[in-house]
TrEMBL record:
CDD domains: WD40. GO terms for cellular component: mRNA cleavage and polyadenylation specificity factor complex. InterPro entries: Pfs2-like, WD40/YVTN_repeat-like_dom_sf, WD40_PAC1, WD40_repeat_dom_sf, WD40_rpt. Gene3D superfamilies: YVTN repeat-like/Quinoprotein amine dehydrogenase (2.130.10.10). PANTHER family: PRE-MRNA 3' END PROCESSING PROTEIN WDR33 (PTHR22836:SF0), WD40 REPEAT PROTEIN (PTHR22836). This is WD40 repeat-like protein.
């Protein structure tokens, strides 16, 4: 008896008697199976574009000095020019859509004992992606071939957040039982702290000097910690409900927090006082994110809005409406100052450019990028790829469109 195999488009012989090799498989079948196991996986390798960028950097510098656009580096509308695609940092003037708005799904992964992916982070250098799930487990993925590398138990409760120190020597994680852990770059546990009255800790952020960090949780408190002694220095009280998000200013002693009381507060961690309160949202503030320029603060809420504030004047610059459900995640592009990505409760992924004309409209939108809420998203340090983790138990890698 023979049947058609779509894999090799040739008849495949089944031996009903069980002879002809292991498990009744012929020598050709065994050879084909071995070839499929050794099949080269598709990957997204940024070394080629990085080399191209190094070759062109002197030309780029000359163009910048004469205030002209480096037109020779722009891609032509033909697939043969893909080899000339540079890194996102190659864009001196306005961001190029093909380099900043990552609309091509390069890969989708799911661990064997899959549970919702609550948070994720690229390892130092961007070689691997680390995800934390609802069972309190780490999963490590290769950032180039997207292959599975490691899964290990990390917390006794669901992950809530993770953050690398700026010197990349330690990783901080928190869970739903009020536990904070220090980890080495090799993902070895270093220290454990119980805090926030055993309430879920939703956010972690580290000071620019790496000597302090801040946490927030469902006990309505924002807590400042000393990094070396692992001790709590100060409790910032002022929110009337669960604090869902927190972010330390990239260069100054200012902390932003967002709460279920609909408020965004700015704090001085040295004095323990509230500097200002922003009343822009009408529902729970789910995320806050500082721009690397130190002047802009992004806030997202269950009212489906994203707001951009200039903290120098405490002024709202723009209110962005593109999500049809609550906004659950935010991340600024690591290289392009005006570009950021947002994820929604309905699985929608949106890219924004707040520096362009008509910035109130999405620059690119992927409806149903996930089947359920996008709990976290993180840009690769080189800016050419975005990773998203979702309640649908999947981790997806997004790359520049081809």
């Amino acid at each position: 008896m023979s049947h058609y195999s779509p894999n090799n488009a040739r008849p495949k012989v089944s031996n009903a008697g069980g002879g002809g090799g292991a498990g009744g498989m012929s020598a050709d079948d065994l050879e084909q199976e071995a070839a499929e196991r050794n099949l080269i996986r598709r990957c997204v390798d940024y070394h080629g574009p990085a080399i191209l960028d190094l070759q062109n950097r002197l030309y780029r510098k000359a163009c910048r000095s004469h205030h002209t656009r480096h037109s020779a580096l722009y891609l032509q509308p033909h697939s043969s020019y893909m080899r000339l695609m540079g890194m996102p940092l190659a864009s001196v003037a306005a961001p190029i859509p093909s380099e900043c708005y990552l609309t091509y799904m390069a890969h989708v992964t799911r661990a064997k004992n899959s549970t919702p992916v609550m948070c994720l982070s690229w390892t130092p250098g961007g070689r691997r992606l680390l995800t934390g799930n609802q069972e309190g487990e780490f999963t490590l993925w290769d950032g180039i071939t997207f292959s599975f590398e490691l899964i290990m138990s990390a917390h006794d409760a669901s992950f809530r957040s993770m953050a690398w120190s700026h010197n990349r020597n330690y990783l901080l994680t928190s869970d739903a039982s009020g536990n904070i852990k220090y980890w080495s770059p090799s993902i070895a546990p270093v220290q454990s702290i119980d805090s926030h009255n055993k309430q879920p800790i939703h956010g972690l952020s580290i000071s620019p000097s790496d000597t302090k960090f801040v946490s927030c949780g469902d006990d309505a408190a924002v807590r400042v910690w000393d990094w070396a002694s692992h001790s709590e220095e100060r409790t910032l009280e002022g929110h009337g409900w669960d604090v869902k998000t927190v972010a330390w200013h990239p260069r100054s002693s200012v902390i932003a927090s967002g709460s279920k009381d609909n408020l965004v507060k700015l704090w001085d961690p040295r004095a323990g006082s509230c500097l200002s309160t922003l009343y822009g949202h009408k529902n729970t503030v789910t995320k806050v994110a500082w721009n690397d320029n130190g002047n802009w603060l992004l806030t997202a809420s269950r009212d489906q809005l994203i707001k951009l504030y200039d903290i120098r004047a405490m002024k709202e610059l723009v209110s962005l409406k593109g999500h049809h459900k609550e906004v659950t995640s935010l991340a600024w592009h690591p290289l392009q100052e005006t570009v950021f990505a947002s994820g929604g409760m309905d699985g929608t992924l949106i890219y924004w450019n707040v520096g362009a004309k008509g910035s109130e409209e999405p620059a690119a939108k992927i409806p149903y990028a996930h089947d359920m809420a996008i709990w976290d998203l993180q840009w690769h340090p080189a800016g050419h790829m975005l990773a998203t983790g979702s309640n649908d138990r999947q981790t997806k890698f997004w790359a520049r469109n081809r």
